[in-house]
Amino acid sequence: SGAALWGIDPAALEGRLPGYLPDVPLVREDVADYLGEVQALDAYLGVLLEELEARGQMGSTLILLSGDHGMPGIPSGKATLYDGGTHVTLTARVPGASPGRVIDDFVSLADLAPTFVEIAGGEPLPGIYGRSLLAHLRASSGGWIDPSRDHVVFGLERHVDMAREDLLPYPQRGLRNTDFLYIRNFAPNRRPMGLPPEASVAPEYLDMDPGPTKAWLVANAETSPAFHERAFGRRPAEELYDLGSDPDQLDNVAYEPGYAQVRETLAAQLLEELEAAGDPRVTGDGLTFERPPFTDLSEGSNRYLDMLPEPGIAGEPAQ
Questions:
Q1: DSSP classification of residue 11
Q2: Residue 153: how many other CB atoms lie within 10 Å
Q3: Mapped to the 3 state alphabet, what secondary structure does 76-87 carry?
Q4: Domain contains 19
Q5: Is residue 167 part of a domain?
Q6: How many domains does the chain have?
Q7: 242 three-state secondary structure
């Protein structure tokens, strides 16, 4: 669709893909199609804005545009804590505000609920992790607005329920600032993208959505083992990436002596914030997400298990 509908030539992407993607025709076509989806969204948004203008409501409407994750079906994308999975656009149109500003502060989608509450004149909600962005939306200039917003914390438990045995999650928490990305993997013995073909009754590596890039990685596991391992292999308990020299987050320096102080500082900062937020992964025994209802195998409780065929269907033994 990228080429057919939007004129995006996959060949023009040669040499321009991030280092975690194989620079081969099929993957370039996959990325071109995703760029086509971005173009489609932009066109749809234009239609909505024209309708608001035609109805005379543009001047009284706050518009916020974002996404919930990065590109699906690729390594270091959706269902990961690398920039390709967590860094999404947040674009706003605010009546009466200065247009064309780019804000450098680290913010999170968790900040949107407090923002809407403040706009509506409500009181801050207890137990809400995020902080209102209203001051940023109304600021007269871009750049850095709030010096305390010098980092962001995020996390992941599970994407697809049955990606791993017993519906177990792949628990991760991360902290990103201007210079570094630190990731804590709480169960490094598990596979981050799910079980491989030989160990799964479901499609392999379920935590990575299906698509051309994933299919290429699976099919070329033997000829391109580095790409396959980076996409599907187990990860160490801690990951640290120096973003100044490694923007694609390919070289984990967490265990290099020269980065020991940085790793310890960020690990302590992350733990402090998780504890302050009451994150179940670091409170109590830390296993809340590994018990029912999160691992409930009863009938009707799991949308993926319920899709599997009944044993013996059509006279054939269950596979």
A1: G
A2: 19
A3: CCCCCCCHHHHC
A4: no
A5: yes
A6: 1
A7: strand
Mean pLDDT of 10-31: 98
Whether 244 is in a domain gets the answer yes
Domain that holds residue 293: 150-190+234-298
Alpha-carbon gap, residue 14 to 216, rounded angstroms: 17
Helices 212-219 and 25-54: crossing angle, nearest 10°? 170
Residues 6 or more apart whose CB falls under 8 angstroms from that of 194 comprise: 160, 163, 164, 200, 204, 205, 206, 207, 208
291 touches 166 (CB < 8 A)? no
Q: How far apart are CA 315 and CA 152, in angstroms?
A: 54
For residue range 48-90, what is the model confidence (pLDDT) as tens digits? 999 999 999 999 999 999 998 999 999 999 999 999 999 999 9
Which domain CATH number covers 293? Answer: 3.30.1120.10
Q: How many residues in the chain?
A: 319
Count of helices and strands (H, E) across the chain: 8, 6
122 burial type by CB count under 10 A (0-12 exposed, 13-18 middle, 19+ buried) = exposed
Whole-prediction pTM value?
Answer: 0.90
Element at 270 (helix H, strand E) = helix 260-277
